[in-house]
Amino acid sequence: MSHTIKSGDFGIQAKVNNTIRVLNPFTENKGINLSCNFKKI
């Protein structure tokens, strides 16, 4: 099953991860999990 990743997806993922880090450093691990789930979509 092929999945095409656009450059825009990385931008959105980066913004989400940065927002999570700013809101609460302790949620960084959760941010990684969200990124993994995001890639599976």
Judged by helices, strands and strand pairing, the structural class is: mainly alpha
Number of separate helices: 2
The backbone outline, from C-alpha atoms, is flat
**Average pLDDT:** 65
Report the uncertain regions: none
Cα-based radius of gyration, to the nearest Å: 11 Å
Largest pleated sheet? none
User: Beta-strand level of the residues, as a percent range?
Assistant: under 5%
Helix/strand order, N-terminal first: HH
Distance between the termini: 12 Å
Q: Helicity, in percent? A: over 70%
The beta-strand count equals 0
How would you characterize the overall build of this protein?
- The structure is a single chain.
- By secondary structure, the protein is mainly α.
- The termini are close together.
- The mean pLDDT is 65.
- The chain contains two helices and no strands.
- It is flat, with a radius of gyration of 11 Å.
Summarize this entry quickly.
The protein has 41 residues and is an all-alpha fold. It has helices at residues 7-23, 28-40.
Offer a few descriptive terms.
41 residues; mainly alpha; 2 helices; 73% helix; 0% strand; flat
Topology:
Blueprint (H helix, E strand, L loop, with lengths): L6 H17 L4 H13 L1
Helix pairs in contact: 1-2
